[in-house]
Amino acid sequence: MRSLRIAGGVEAASLAVLLVNLFTVHAQVITSLGGPLHGTAYLVVIAITLLTPAAASTGARALALVPGIGGLLALRRIRRHTRRCARGPARSGTSPRTTA
């Protein structure tokens, strides 16, 4: 999970830098360095998510394909699924409503 967190953060941060650069000074150096960094981080996020067993049943693999924030979305979905599995199966019939 650490590698997905790092790759997702790099993916989001590099996209933010590229967009800020685009709407402000549009420096070619930032574009030349940030573009390949963002693309590599995006591919790493997809690869890590595909190799993570917990991502198979949660839909995290599809979320990883979202450019820019897909890594963070996939990480959130995997963590939520892992926490839910650690708590055990949901109990049914525990509604506080009573029938009269």
Architecture overview:
This protein is mostly helical. The chain has one domain. The protein is 68% helix and 0% strand. The chain is built from four helices and no strands. Helix 1 runs antiparallel to helix 2, helix 1 runs antiparallel to helix 4 and helix 2 runs parallel beside helix 4. The N and C termini lie far apart (48 Å). The mean pLDDT is 88. Keywords: Membrane, Transmembrane, Transmembrane helix. This is DUF3817 domain-containing protein.
Shape: elongated
Secondary-structure-based class equals mainly alpha
Q: Nearest-angstrom radius of gyration? A: 19 Å
Low-confidence segments, given as residue ranges, are: none
Mean model confidence by pLDDT: 88
Number of domains: 1
Query: How would you sum up the major sheet?
Result: none
What's the SSE pattern? HHHH
What's the quick description here?
This protein is mainly α. The chain is built from 4 helices and no strands.
Topology:
Elements lengths: L1 H22 L4 H24 L8 H4 L6 H18 L13
Helix pairs in contact: 1-2, 1-4, 2-4
